Structure prediction request, 428 residues.
Amino acid sequence: MKITALNGFKDIVPGEVELWQRVETAARTIFSRFSFSEIRMPILEKTELFSRSIGESTDIVEKEMYTFVDKQITMRPEATASLLRAYIQHGLHVQKPIQRLFTIGPMFRHERPQKGRLRQFHQMDVEVIGAQNPRVDAELMAMGALLLEELGLTVSLELNSLGCPACRPDFRQALLAFLEDRHEALCDDCKRRCTSNPLRVLDCKNPSCRTLVEEAPSIQEHLCQGCSDHFGVVQEGLQQLGVPYSLNKFMVRGLDYYTRTTFEFITGDLGAQAAVGAGGRYDGLIEQLGGPKVPGIGFALGMERLVLLLQQQEGEEVAEGESDLFVAGLGEVATNFVFPLVHALRRKGLQVATDYEGRSLKSQMKQANKAGAKWVLIIGDTELEEGQAVLRDMQSQEQEKIRIGTGVDALLSLLLQAFEKKKISLEQ
Ligand code: ATP
Ligand code: MG
Prediction:
């Protein structure tokens, strides 16, 4: 009987992993341009961290967490809470008043697995802690948009403001009054939400609830002066930076900690899994977790969804391997000569592949193609006796003879010379 991975848990195999590396490399490049430093946190945290930050009556905490009930620990369902826990624990605010941090890694949620929705999934998460200025919000969204653009993805940005503890109760009242009149038409989940968390009704996926809330009051019209001004400057900032966006008064997000700015990067190409990234401001959260009274804002991109989009865009063909050189040894003496030569070349920094099974030249040339080798060095027993090897350029198909001389060291220096020459001619 074969043992397979758990439902919703996936291996990332060669051919696909190259796209993951591309996504991650692009992210690291862009994040560092915007002065973010990396932070890495553990995967297990105390359950209380998430119930206190994400909110008891959210889907994540109510039904999606992987919790060891006997130990009161949970596999992190998202990165923000852990990152803030680490920020507080290490007193990072003392070192720098504004911290710009990013982290990349797996998150765990017990959801129904589908395309683009897994139980172990991966996020690239960025957070700016300590900055209240609405320009930071705009800049952060612009950074996300730039990264998606660098990856060649077309994604739209949706924006909302959720107000603050001063203005949200007012909106909540207005929304409740609206919902009360239509209570019977709501789905069972939303009936429950009316008492536990009425804002959640706004992003119910049920089609009849969706139609119903279209007429609901807009939070954007219930913002206090401070929130309204802040929201105004965020939008001006996006315009200044040339980042297109649209307002979405229904976006409430699945975590309770958000205040003011919330946003999502949306794609039309992944069906129900439309959000490739999402985030927002969480101005009271750090204090609520026992830290200093500082504001914060961040967002997370879902890597599975980014990779799916890249695959759809580029076709699923396996990305070719890449190596500088394939060394083909033919015959026992030659194979024995090749073994230390390959190692010496690798020590010099070349990417080298070879055959270990004494296969035919034809088969070794096939392997060289698969390995994406730029050059193949062919050494047979007869060549070795004549003190020669053949270096073939795989692109131009040109071959040249190289004198092996007295052994591995001599060949090595000849090869390195040959590569230097080729590199120069390639660069010109
Ligand atoms: P969704 O509405 O799709 O459930 P979410 O609002 O729960 O998303 P967030 O908690 O904001 O998602 O996480 C940020 C990003 O992480 C999402 O935009 C998405 O790209 C990705 N993500 C969230 N949950 C999953 C999952 N189960 N599998 C794969 N990616 C996910
Ligand atoms: Mg979700």
Summary: The longest helix spans residues 408-427.
